[in-house]
Design goal:
The structure is a single chain. By secondary structure, this protein is mostly helical. It contains 3 helices and 2 strands, in the order ααβαβ. A two-stranded parallel ribbon has the order 1-2. The chain is globular, with a radius of gyration of 14 Å.
Amino acid sequence: MLDTLETTIARIQGVMIACFENGLQPNPEDFQFISTSGDTSAKVGGLHNLLRQGNRPDGMVILHDFLAPSVVETALRCGLNLPNDLKLGMIGDDFAIDIDG
């Protein structure tokens, strides 16, 4: 989710700091925003396009766990096998996602 909440900004900073600490250069294309505060549904068109590309990511960190179902559903619609084709990690503890056991 893209918004101005301090927690969201801190989460994005945390991902970027972890990249720098591990010798990785964050790339704007590595970030997909599927919601803004006030949205009632996720906008997954860009995510869908990303996951259908040959150079799609091997894994993703979902910064707001309430958006995990939308990410999982999009990945499955793209024909990906979770977690073999795409590994997902979430920040938050409100949602538990179980896919095919």
